[in-house]
Amino acid sequence: MDTVSVENEVIMADDGIVKPVAGGRATIDRDNRETVGDVTAKNPRMRCREVSVFYGEKQAIHDVSLDVGSNEVIALIGPSGCGKSTFLRCLNRMNDTIDGCRVIGDISLDGDSIFDTKMDVVQLRAQVGMVFQKPNPFPKSIFENVAYGPRIHGLTRDKTELEAVVHTSLDRAGLLDEVKDRLGEPGTGLSGGQQQRLCIARAIAVNPEVILMDEPCSALDPIATARIEELIDELREQYAIAIVTHSMQQAARVSQRTAYFHLGDLIEIGETNQVFTNPHHQLTEDYITGRFG
Amino acid sequence: MSNGTITGAGNPGRTIDTVRAGLDRRYRAERRFRIYGLSAIVLGLLFVSILFITIIGNGYPAFQQTYVKLDIDFDPESLGIGDQRSNAALSGANYQALVRNALKVRFPDVTGRSDRRALNSLISSGASYQLRDAVLDDPTIIGTRRSVWVPADDDVDQLVKGHMDRAAAEGDRRLKDNQLAWLDQLQADGAIEKRFNTTFFTAGDSREPELAGIRGALMGSVFTLIVTLALSFPIGVATAVYLEEFAPRNRWTDLIEVNINNLAAVPSIVFGLLGLAVFINFFGLPRSAPLVGGLVLTLMTLPTIIIASRAALKSVPPSIRDAALGVGASRVQAVTHHILPLAMPGMLTGAIIGMAQALGESAPLLMIGMVAFIVDVPGGFTDPSTVLPVQIYLWADSPERGFVERTSAAIMVLLGFLIVMNALAVLLRKRFERRW
Ligand SMILES: Nc1ncnc2c1ncn2[C@@H]1O[C@H](COP(=O)(O)OP(=O)(O)O)[C@@H](O)[C@H]1O
Ligand SMILES: [Mg+2]
């Protein structure tokens, strides 16, 4: 992996909107598929090394190495179909549920391989929570939605404790004030943005270490999106977060590090500022300047 | 191309005109289509109402039965029991004699042997059973004299219901002139009456229409369907869940799937032959038993339930599965907590279609002997019995006029059973149905 040193120039306006650099400063040629940038994080929670994913014969991810650090948000960006979701789903082994999907390489959580026989997939998913693209609350009450995780893992001893967990989770997801009078109503009756926050509350109710989010705002309006982004920023204090997004503005607003994927390859990874303002790879620059995507 | 029919971007004024010209045609097509649909529905309703009108019109007289009032002298001497009052003696007593004596007293001038027999034949042979039951119920009535309504013979019943032509030549009538005269006397006394036919709902089959009831077949159907439901629903749902949620996709599961789909198309009589060979000849289970009938119908219903259950499971959004797995539910937990409850309404629909098929099925049951003439109402899963459709078939095949109306009445009972079953399923489905 080549680490190319380029002077770190920050070109970000006050409104937080990234102004891509024009003129092509990137120095790495389009045909080079080696990862550019530092894949390691300061306090890594999850480490992925040389991960490849196959759907049957077709390879969807090629030798991707990447760390997800504590208290940071890492954004995975790239054109659609480049394997962002596929990679994200490796981190909590959701790819196991897809017939014909094969994952090779090393992925570890806090130093333990997640493919180890000692590591139970149920336990892994309790530690690595996931929020999906389309809000998918269970067709049950709001309370039951959040209580489900703690209940199946036996995290609480009695009803009051469970209620406390549900309340704190909803509170941290910023949903409590809106729903505290109607916890018994169906979660599916909430608005899209509320449903997505309910799903986040459901994920944090089992007290995970890592939260994976796959385009969590793609089905939401701008106001709901802004709320979720605020929430992600708050959650960063406690969790390691990996978020897939197709919005470069969103990546710039919420993440500290950004990884750019292209056709199954991790092309470039680095500080978000650097990737957006001073991409080293020609493909990254093409993408963030809107030449394709 | 030069006559102005060209429309499109280059000719903006014309587009709207062309559309407008086409509108009429479009509206006409829509109207026509609606009329096709409506007439199909009307035609369907018409046939259904014809069916209902004929069945109810034919069947409702069966719910009434003609009774004759007789002054019965419960004389121990005629009964032939003397001083004995044990149950065995009372059961074996000669109740026929009581009926004959009562008639003799009522019509003292009838003396000839053949006239007597003609007179006695006006009363159903079921009268003596009724008297026996009354005596067994309360032995103290022995030695007393009471008015008792006893069932009339089938021919009398038909006459009273107006199904016999009095004007026909005597030789063409089931009742002769002298019998008509006696009946007219009884009628004048107010000793003939049509009453609700409780026998029809409490008795098993009989050779005498006035004694034949639907209960035997009804209970046979109930027991058979209990066996069918208890076996086919769990097995069908378990199969569907395994194939849909757990089985790997490979050549074996493909083969199983093809086979299940083919089984759904196998003619039902083949399952009857299979049941005869396997359950009766090989395993030695009893013939004519609801247990075997239920097993055979289970084989027949399973593919229907499996196919419907798989469709129901497929229709559960995959996002629900992901959500459950995503918070760390195991596969079994995801299935039992979320997917099964959501698929349950669809599975119940499949089950009810299967059960309705099973309820109406007669061919495979003929093969395992459920077509036998069985008088006793079955009390369990291994008692010989028949089922509603077979009973309908048996009665439809009987020559007596009384069985014609009973055939239609039995069809009404079958339809009623079906409606109750469907209503139950709809209720259950309502309870399971959820929004998402
Ligand atoms: N279940 C699947 N079976 C086969 N191929 C898949 C499946 N899911 C995704 N793929 C393929 O893997 C590649 C990456 O898909 P995905 O990870 O969904 O992309 P992204 O999330 O970046 O848009 C695509 O080419 C897609 O066609
Ligand atoms: Mg995706």
The quaternary structure here is: heterodimer
Helices and strands of chain B, in order, run as HEHHHHHEHHEHHHHHHHHHH
Taking pLDDT < 50 over at least 5 consecutive residues as the criterion, the unreliable ranges of chain B are none
Unreliable stretches of chain A (pLDDT < 50, length at least 5) are 1-23
Amino- and carboxy-terminal Cα gap of chain B: 55 Å
What count of domains describes the coordinates of chain B? 3
Topology of this structure?
The complex is a heterodimer of chains A (293) and B (436).
Chain A: E1 44-55, E2 58-69, E3 73-77, H1 84-91, E4 101-109, E5 112-113, H2 121-127, E6 128-131, H3 142-153, H4 159-172, H5 176-179, H6 192-204, E7 210-214, H7 222-235, E8 240-244, H8 248-254, E9 257-262, E10 265-271, H9 272-277, H10 282-288
Parallel strand pairs in A: 3-8, 3-9, 6-7, 7-8
Antiparallel strand pairs in A: 1-2, 1-4, 4-5, 9-10
Helix pairs in contact in A: 3-4, 3-6, 4-6, 6-7
Chain B: H1 12-59, E1 64-73, H2 76-79, H3 87-92, H4 95-106, H5 113-120, H6 126-137, E2 145-151, H7 154-160, H8 177-189, E3 192-196, H9 199-202, H10 215-246, H11 251-263, H12 268-282, H13 290-314, H14 318-326, H15 331-360, H16 363-367, H17 388-396, H18 401-432
Antiparallel strand pairs in B: 1-2, 1-3
Helix pairs in contact in B: 1-18, 4-6, 10-13, 10-15, 10-17, 12-13, 13-15, 14-15, 15-18, 17-18
